[in-house]
């Protein structure tokens, strides 16, 4: 099985030695996406709502660069700096995933890269395969 590295011009560049996405066979595995604006390289806000929205836009960009979309997502993992932000994150998440929901895990972690409020990763099935 061939491994293909995915880069997305509309998503922030990786901040370490990893790829934004990897296509392996019929699947795309994304790195965790933060609420960082691709143009400025900065967080859009310190608020979980705005960071969640941007993280999902970034996730969408990576998936599209690999030939998939949010509709192809089969699993997400959401990392939160504070589980008290779950409701706010979930409301934004529901704007992007409206039916045929992917499986999801959500956990509170001790700390996220760059002290982010939220990080979201996904596994997607590539359409047409």
CATH-derived architecture: 2-Layer Sandwich
* Structural class label: alpha+beta
The pLDDT mean sits at 96
Rg, Cα atoms, Å: 14 Å
Question: How would you characterize the overall build of this protein?
Answer:
22% of the residues lie in helices and 26% in strands. Strands 1-2-3-6-4-5 form a 6-stranded mixed β-sheet, with helices on one face. The longest helix is centred in the middle third of the chain and has 18 residues, at 48-65. It is of the alpha+beta class and 129 residues long. The chain has helices at residues 48-65, 86-96; strands spanning 3-6, 21-24, 27-30, 73-80, 103-108, 118-125. The mean pLDDT is 96. The protein starts with a strand and ends with a strand. It has one domain (3-125): 60s Ribosomal Protein L30, Chain: A. It contains 2 helices and 6 strands.
In brief, what are we looking at here?
This protein is an alpha+beta fold.
Please supply descriptive tags for the structure shown above:
22% helix, 60s Ribosomal Protein L30, Chain: A, 2 helices, globular, alpha+beta, 129 residues
List the helices and strands and how they pair.
Elements (H helix, E strand, L loop, with lengths): L2 E4 L14 E4 L2 E4 L17 H18 L7 E8 L5 H11 L6 E6 L9 E8 L4
Parallel strand pairs: 4-5
Antiparallel strand pairs: 1-2, 2-3, 3-6, 4-6
Helix pairs in contact: 1-2
């Amino acid at each position: 099985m061939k491994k293909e590295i995915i880069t997305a011009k509309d998503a922030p560049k990786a901040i370490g030695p990893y790829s934004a996405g990897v296509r392996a066979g019929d699947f795309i595995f994304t790195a965790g996406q933060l609420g960082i604006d691709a143009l400025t390289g900065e967080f859009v806000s310190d608020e979980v709502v705005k960071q969640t929205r941007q993280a999902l836009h970034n996730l969408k960009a990576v998936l599209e660069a690999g030939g998939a979309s949010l509709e192809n997502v089969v699993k997400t993992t959401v990392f939160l700096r504070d589980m008290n932000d779950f409701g706010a994150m979930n409301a934004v998440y529901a704007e992007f995933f409206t039916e045929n929901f992917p499986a999801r895990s959500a956990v509170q972690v001790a700390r996220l890269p760059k002290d982010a409020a939220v990080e979201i990763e996904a596994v997607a099935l590539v359409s047409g395969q």
